[in-house]
Design brief:
By secondary structure, the chain is of the alpha/beta class. The protein has 18 helices and 14 strands. A hairpin with a 7-residue loop joins β12 and β13. The N and C termini lie far apart (about 85 Å).
């Protein structure tokens, strides 16, 4: 047998023409593996392309393509009038691959090192619901998707996606689509009492990104920040991961206790607050507390992050004016989201910053992820400009008030002696206070086993409290689902009493 045939036989590889991987790629990967593990030693001459193609019964072009890829990546070298060889000396990085491939994997992999920020993020208590998993009755934070005006929304989506303009397909202003920024500013002035121009509005990918952006721009590692206790876990995690020293400030019937915050950390750099509808207790920050908070920010040269996540849904009178509208020193950053007003997967929010910070925040926004999808922004801009948004909000106020009343009646019937549920003038959920000294985490687990989602209040606390509670969502559920959820909750709590 000739030398070529001996080599060709030696290099015969199992090629599978039914595999989705192209034949040249299969040949390339087999050669690469054998070079790296030493089966094809340095200095070995490979067969000519025509001879190997005949031996493997494949096209010569297939062999040529595999050889060219290996030559281009340095696994082979060509020598004039001599042929193709495995290089006598492979590059160091290839030798590293060879050594690793010849080593047995340890029984347990060595723990990879994270940065300090990465460790903080990994230990975060924020855990989103599993993607694709079903929502369950009484889960808070779920809007009425069954009542969303999809027909009007669909027409707007078709308008922009059927034949989009070049402007909507190109890179855009990191601050956001100007028509949407203008629509938001025009909505916030009369509806929320926010003093702003479109140039102060930044479009962001949800309120969580807004908090992260604020932390990056206004905090240094070790800075003290106030957070409501109990309060929004996402804000606490974002601020802590930025290296801030999180200081829990108690919340009572009048909202954040500013005096307590002063005692705990007078010179804090920032506070995150939900003044119009405190999350999760549902209370409103009183006027004296609002004035005290603004006065503290002025004296401490601190920042106030006003998270106005669902205050559009107020059922008694007009929505309360935003804290930002009372600010005369430019200390308040106003944060809003469309996740509750429209739907969560939209991932669209807005941040209103003091005018002297606008350029700096836009520059940082460009670094973070360049921009929010412009086509989506254009759809929302038209949704607002054509009046669909405000009509939807008005319908939802009526619907959510009705659903809250359904929840209250069901709770009175099914949860008497177990959970005390009181009405609230704003929002999408109610607090259910457990009677007696029941531990709310145990109660929440019992509810989950019964197919009901009721997060325990203690999971939102920094300091322990003997008073346990459950968050009861009603906005996203119709009458039948609310009745069924409350009935299951009552049965679960009685069984685990």
């Amino acid at each position: 047998m000739s030398r070529v045939n001996r080599n060709a036989t030696l290099l015969t590889v199992p090629l599978d023409p039914t595999d989705m991987t192209p034949l040249f790629r299969q040949l390339y990967e087999e050669f690469r593996r054998r070079i790296l593990d030493g089966t094809l030693p340095p200095g070995m001459r490979l067969p000519a392309t025509r001879a190997l193609a005949d031996e493997l019964r494949i096209s010569r072009n297939t062999v040529l393509n595999a050889y060219e890829q290996l030559l281009a990546e340095g696994y082979l070298e060509g020598r004039a009038r001599s042929g193709t060889y495995v290089p006598p000396k492979l590059p160091e990085e290839m030798m590293q691959v060879r050594r690793k491939s010849n080593q047995r994997r340890p029984a347990t992999a060595t723990r990879r090192e994270l940065s300090q920020r990465g460790e903080l993020l990994a230990r975060s208590s924020v855990r989103p619901r599993c993607a694709g998993g079903p929502t369950r009755p009484l889960q808070p934070g779920v809007p009425a998707l069954d009542a969303f005006p999809f027909e009007a929304w669909g027409r707007l989506v078709s308008r922009h996606y059927h034949r989009p303009s070049r402007e909507l397909l190109d890179y855009a202003d990191p601050a956001g689509y100007h028509s949407l920024r203008k629509a938001i500013a025009e909505h916030l002035r009369p509806a929320r009492g926010v003093n702003c121009d479109p140039e102060q509005v930044l479009i962001i990918t949800g309120s969580q990104q807004g908090i992260d952006l604020i932390a990056r721009m206004l905090l240094d590692p070790g800075d003290a920040v106030w957070v409501e206790d109990p309060g929004y876990l996402g804000a606490r995690a974002a601020l802590a991961s930025a290296g801030a020293r999180v200081v829990g400030v108690p919340v009572d019937a009048a909202g954040l206790d500013v005096c307590a915050g002063n005692l705990r950390s007078r010179n804090a750099r920032l506070v995150h607050v939900t003044p119009s509808h405190q999350y999760p207790l549902g209370v409103t920050l009183s006027l004296p507390r609002r004035l005290a908070l603004l006065d503290w920010a002025h004296r401490a040269n601190a920042w106030i992050v006003e998270d106005d996540y669902d205050s559009e849904f107020r059922y008694a009178g007009r929505p309360l004016a935003a804290l930002q509208g009372m600010d005369r020193d430019g200390r308040v950053l106003y944060l809003g989201t469309f996740s509750k007003a429209l739907f969560p997967s939209l991932r669209l929010g807005y941040l209103v910053v003091p005018s002297d910070l606008a350029n700096a925040f836009v520059a940082a926004r460009a670094v973070m992820d360049r921009q929010t999808p412009t086509l989506t922004q254009a759809v929302v801009a038209d949704f607002m400009n054509e009046g669909h948004f405000i009509r939807h909000i008005r319908r939802m106020r009526t619907l959510y008030r009705e659903r809250q009343e359904i929840l209250l009646r069901a709770a009175k019937r099914e949860l008497d002696g177990l959970v005390n549920v009181s009405p609230c003038e704003t929002g999408m959920h109610l607090m259910g206070w457990l009677e007696g000294e029941r531990e709310d985490r145990t109660a929440s687990r019992a509810a989950a086993q019964a197919g009901v989602e009721t997060p325990p209040l203690s999971s939102y606390r920094i300091e322990h409290s003997d008073r346990g509670g459950l968050l009861l969502g009603y906005a996203g559920w119709d009458a039948r689902q609310i009745h069924d959820g409350v009935r299951r909750l009552g049965r679960a709590l009685r069984d685990h009493r």
